[in-house]
Amino acid sequence: MTRLTYAYAFTLAALLHTVPACLDATAGDDPDAEDEDLDGKADGVTTPVVSDDNLNGLWTTTENGTKLVDDTVIESWPAIGIRVHKGGKVYQLTRSGDHLTGTGVALDVKPNKSGVKDDTFDGTIDGKTIHFQRDVAVKPPITLSFPADRPYRSWLVDTILPLAQQDRESYVHMTSSPMLAFLTSCELYKHGSWLRTYFKGATFSEQAANFRKVVYAVNGQDSTPRQINSNYKFSSTLQANLKDPSKIGLAMSTFGMYFSTAAGRSLHIPMTANSMAYFITDKPKRAELLGLVVMDTPSHGPLASTFGRQLLDMGAMPAADNTVYARTMMELLAKSDNRSASSLSPTGQSAVTDWFSVMAIEDYRGVAFGEPNLGWGYNMTNVQFFGLVARALARPSAVDSTGKPVLGQVLVGSELRPGDPSYADVLNNGNDMQEYPDMSALKIQATNFLRSAHPAQVAAVEAAFANIVPKNQLDYRAQQDIFHFITAELYDSQGRIANLKGAAADTAINAVVALFDVLNQDSAGFEAYVLAHGTTKSNVAAPKSTGF
User: Fold this and answer.
1) CA distance linking residue 335 with residue 260, whole number of Å
2) Per residue in 75-93, is it b (16+ CB within 10 Å) or e — as a string?
């Protein structure tokens, strides 16, 4: 696989102590570098104005005449307003014209010349004279390490959220050669999808040549993930080589994110030695629609994997992965610990990397933009539990009506049929892993069977989460479905899952793994229970996702 490699790992400590900032000597207002019609500053009028979006950034800070080591970070989008992070404190500001005020804060924003690179602030914070200047120094990539000491939802809030903001505001130097190597390793390039969809030319070769023109055009440019679409050379060359001008918006969004990632930006999240996620965010003003995540795994090159593709990999894992997959999921969710992922098969590593990465970006969108109950990340995890339940009904020595081994079974109406986790994608037909009746019915049957035949394992799971969200506060789904119960506890919108630490987290992990183990061990009893409760057995395979 073509992997972006850099000799820098960014940890939480580095979040608190950023690289000393300085202005690049060549980072002035270059008309070839900034598209003045797109950068959010009202260039071309008498007085330039810094837009609310362009308040976002990393800002070198001088306090009472002394330059501070750490950058100040400013966040600005409708869901949160304007927030200044300085010296471990957060200041909420309001804006009137070019004046920003808040408790202890009075700042004037100064757009100066055209383009965003020379923007500054002057004023006071807590009685001290302050000067901010946009930090345009090129920053190294940010690589996250799983902390293995707190629930995923806590890690999302205390680390991923602020580092995503830092990443999308960090400048990167674009060099065409390594960018082209990464971009041409992407599945959407290799399969011709990008070329056919966007670029002029009658043949693959002609389309590829026009694609390369865009990559070569940005060589030597400095930009950020949020600002790359305002880069004149990127935007003008892309538009000149686009076969359908009506697709310019989608093309700019897509390639803006992929190009900045190819240059070295995005949060790099290595799941195993063979699986990497590139967590990409771009424009906060897009709110819950911002960003995407691209995974490079043993099953595929860099790809913003579809739900169907992920579930097909989950269905294709060897049976030996069942316990390890359940443990890996729970260790990631309860402790932000990825160590067990390396024990999975290559297919299992792909499945768990794609699940966690897509789940995290979906969950990020809700949490970062004031909608922690959005449910997209919850749904992604819930469907993994559905997949593990379906796999518990595998009959590999039997074959379905097409002669293929039965690697799992699902409910299709009143029939129990050979099938795999990707049946959920078929039911969703493009939706974000919502739960349809066939999915719910199988999980409830599994819950009822476990309560009847293995009550101790169910009780252990419920006890493990007793100090998180009281059971009487959970919705009806979590009351009747033990797998919804687990998911609801892990994705509590009030943040109570933060209490699950240390030995308590290990207890929860082991209880959930034991629940799936007993379901797999008593697979025959599980199937008999399902067939005894209004279901008939069929040998006709359930529909599968086509994936990518």
Assistant:
1) 31
2) bbbeeeebbbbbeeeebeb
Phi/psi class of residue 65: alpha, beta or left (left: φ > 0; alpha: ψ in -120 to 50)? left
Asked whether the predicted pLDDT for residue 242 surpasses 50, the reply is: yes
- What tokens appear for 27 in the block? 């980072």
Query: Is 328 within 8 Å of 338 (Cβ atoms)?
Result: yes
In the beta sheet, which residues pair with residue 85? 73, 90
Q: How far is the C-alpha of 195 from the C-alpha of 210, rounded, in Å?
A: 9
Distance CA 342, CA 272 (A): 6
DSSP β-ladder status, 105-110 and 120-125 = antiparallel
Rounded distance, CA 506 to CA 339, Å?
Answer: 14
User: 214: which 2 tokens?
Assistant: 């865009």
| Average pLDDT score over residue span 343-368 | 95
Q: Which helix (H) or strand (E) segment is 272 a member of?
A: strand 267-272
Residue 504 CA to residue 521 CA, distance in Å, equals: 26
Q: Check: CB of residue 125 under 8 Å from CB of residue 100.
A: no
pLDDT digits (tens, 9 = 90+) for 31-49: 334 443 344 554 444 567 8
Does 27 score more than 50 pLDDT?
Answer: no
Three-state secondary structure call for residue 426: helix
pLDDT of residue 28: 33
Strands 300-303 and 292-297: antiparallel
Amino acid, single-letter form, for residue 216: Y
Which residue in this structure is represented by tokens 């690179």? Answer: 117
CA-wise closest residue to 338 among 322, 357, 319: 357
CA pseudo-torsion sign 19, 21, 22, 26: positive
d(CA 110, CA 100): 11
Closest CA to 18 of 64, 84, 66, 87: 87
Domain boundaries, the chain: 43-136, 172-263, 267-537
CA 255 to chain centre: 17
What is the tens place of the pLDDT at every residue in 53-97? 999 999 999 999 999 999 999 999 988 899 999 999 999 999 999
What's the CA gap between 530 and 126, in Å, rounded?
66
SS3 294: strand
Q: How many Å apart are CA 129 and CA 108, to the nearest integer?
A: 12
What would the two tokens of residue 481 be? 């479905």
The encoded tokens of residue 202 equal: 């009658």
Please compute Rg for the chain using Cα positions: 25
25-39, 82-96, 319-333, 504-518: which has the minimum mean pLDDT? 25-39
3-state secondary structure (DSSP) of residue 525 = helix
| Contact (Cβ atoms closer than 8 angstroms) between residue 147 and residue 154 | no
DSSP 8-state assignment for residue 199 = B
